[in-house]
Design goal:
Elements (H helix, E strand, L loop, with lengths): L1 H15 L11 H5 L5 H4 L6 H15 L13 E5 L6 E9 L3 H8 E3 L15 E6 L7 E10 L10 E8 L1 H12 L4 E3 L4 H8 L5 H12 L3 H11 L2 H26 L9 H20 L4 H7 L1 E6 L6 H9 L17 E7 L2 E7 L9 H16 L2 E7 H4 E4 L2 E4 L3 H4 L6 E6 L10 H8 L3 E3 L8 H16 L18 H18 L6 H19 L5 H8 L7
Parallel strand pairs: 1-7, 8-10, 8-11, 11-14, 14-15
Antiparallel strand pairs: 1-2, 2-6, 3-4, 4-5, 5-6, 9-10, 12-13
Helix pairs in contact: 4-10, 8-9, 10-11, 10-20, 11-19, 19-20
């Protein structure tokens, strides 16, 4: 039902945004076919009132909002909004034009004589949940709350039934709801989709809500909360508003020319503002994809020679026996991956086969895979046995790192020198940093010596790699983190349109206005402020049924 309604809305929107139905000063057909001398004929008094009209019109064409679908176009939907299984409480959510009827048919407030009593909106009521049939059989003794539109998550009437979370209880309540002819089960993400369609959320908030539900680390939670709370939306809205202001200036030149009441340098001012906006968007894009990496997980590859302590390090990170550890070289032959929380950041740790020359065909394949894993990782950690690679010469300590390992060292490589307890003469981590030119730590995975400092230092190194400080997160002042490829594609498109505008001259104001219009629309697609049917399915398909 909602899919056909969305398509009906899109057809209606398309019909109302055709060139012939646009405001006169935004009619694309008229602009593209304007005679060259028409600017001279259009010179007339340009008041502040006229200019404000241009701003409003430019915003209308570059930034149409998605309207609310009427209740007559929907069904009332229901779903279990909490995870299935045994727990203290299960919440069944009902939303739609007939949600109040659900309350009337199935809720009896405690303290009465069993007859129906109207709810007090937004107040949790102790009640009995009953069969909607004439028998009125009690299904559970729980709580219920009625949210009256538009003060609800979906902006519709909403009823929430808080039940004991037994499978039989939840099943009986859902079965009772299915018997009501005006109700149907919700599709995945449909509650959130209705909130979006009603204007309660934009696409960045919807995506942030999904990421907040899926967040497993502190870093993911912080980023998702910024998006779900509307901070990212406000930042992209500011970018779009800046482009629209440039568009309004250019549109004023198109309609009024450069008359005596038009300030000098209007087009130059628009170009200057467009240049500043282009620089800002490029800075957002030049983020080393840290938002996407934090959202999906930082790929860390642990590599080194056999028996250096790589698998022991993985077990230390996981705080369990995830990998087999033996004194036999070549025990690890394939890549073992774990998703872990290291210092509040999501890290996908890959334990790789020890790098050495061998004739074992299985081990050779494992070494080849290890090389690929290290080369494709966001960050790598080289684990070495300190007694085996450190030697003291007359001119000071030196490191003997195998050639096969040197080929895999990159600017994102860090070092952990293990087995420090076996070293006769101690050496500091600072000295090893000087020798490697990279961040380095000494520790003993057997005794635990130095592991606390290593974990603290490596957590900071991860944050430095992503240019993201968990402890100094000021959401309002930070640039928006681009957490999805969709955002990046739209911002890159906006850059191309702004660059095209900057290549135009004052004699090509019509073409320049078109480029600005496309730039505003590209930024608008990030938050869903324009026609976004092509991306809605991909945004909502991964939501759970009750969300």
């Amino acid at each position: 039902m909602w899919r056909s309604s969305i398509h009906a809305y899109l057809s209606n929107l398309k019909a109302h945004t055709c060139p012939t139905s646009l405001p006169t000063f935004l009619n694309r057909s008229r602009l593209l076919h304007r005679p060259q001398n028409s600017v001279d004929r259009c010179r007339r008094v340009h008041s502040n009132k006229h200019f404000s009209t241009h701003v409003q019109g430019a915003r209308l064409y570059a930034d149409p909002h998605v309207p609310t679908l009427s209740d007559s176009q929907r069904h009332t939907i229901y779903a279990l909004s909490t995870p299935p299984g045994k727990a203290g409480v299960a919440v069944v959510r009902v939303s739609g034009p007939d949600a109040f009827l659900v309350w009337k048919r199935m809720v009896r407030i405690r303290g009465g004589k069993g007859e129906y009593r109207s709810p007090v909106p937004w107040k949790m009521e102790r009640c009995r949940i009953i069969q909607p049939e004439e028998s009125g059989e009690a299904l559970d003794d729980g709580l219920a709350v009625y949210f009256r539109a538009p003060r609800s998550f979906t902006k519709e009437d909403v009823v929430e039934l808080h039940l004991h979370s037994g499978r039989a209880i939840v099943s009986s309540v859902l079965s009772a709801l299915s018997k009501l002819p005006f109700c149907r089960p919700a599709e995945p993400g449909e509650f959130t989709r209705r909130a979006f369609e009603a204007g309660g959320l934009d696409l960045t908030q919807v995506e942030g809500l999904k990421d907040l539900i899926d967040a497993e680390t502190e870093g993911q939670r912080r980023i998702a909360l910024r998006a779900a709370g509307g901070i990212v939306k406000a930042q992209f809205d500011e970018l779009r508003s800046g482009i629209i202001r440039c568009l309004a200036n250019v549109e004023a030149l198109i309609d009024f020319g450069e008359g005596e009441d038009i300030e000098d340098g209007v087009y130059d001012h628009a170009r200057l503002q467009a240049q500043l906006l282009l620089v800002t968007i490029r800075e957002h894009l030049d983020d080393k994809r840290r938002g996407e990496i934090i959202r999906s997980g930082i790929r860390l590859a642990i590599f080194g020679p056999p028996n250096a302590g790589k698998s022991s390090l993985l077990n230390f990170f996981a705080q369990r026996e995830a990998a087999i550890v033996t004194p036999v070289p070549g025990t690890t032959r394939d890549i073992l991956e774990l998703s872990l929380d290291i210092g509040g950041l999501p890290v996908i740790v890959a334990d790789t086969a020890g790098l050495r020359k061998t004739n074992d065909i299985v081990e050779i394949i494992g070494i080849e895979r290890a090389n690929v894993a290290v080369q494709t990782a966001n960050i790598s950690l080289c684990v070495l046995s300190l007694p085996e690679v450190l030697e003291f010469a007359s001119d000071g300590p030196q490191l003997r790192i195998p050639k096969a390992l040197k080929q895999l060292i990159t600017p994102n490589t860090h070092f952990l020198f293990n087995k420090s307890d076996l070293l006769k003469s101690p050496i500091s981590s600072q000295a090893l940093c000087s020798l490697t030119g990279k961040p380095a730590w000494t520790a003993s995975l057997t005794t635990g010596e130095g592991l606390t400092k290593f974990l603290e230092g490596f957590s900071v190194a991860l944050q430095n790699r992503l240019r993201y400080d968990l402890h100094e997160d000021r959401p309002s002042s930070q640039a928006p983190l681009i957490t999805r490829a969709r955002h990046r594609i739209h911002l890159e498109s906006a850059c191309r349109f702004l660059e095209a505008f900057l290549r135009t001259s004052p004699h090509d104001v019509v073409l320049g206005a078109e480029e600005l219009r496309y730039a505003a629309q590209a930024v608008g697609k990030v938050s869903g402020s324009i026609d976004v049917e092509d991306v809605l399915d991909s945004v909502f398909k991964d939501f759970c049924i009750g969300k």
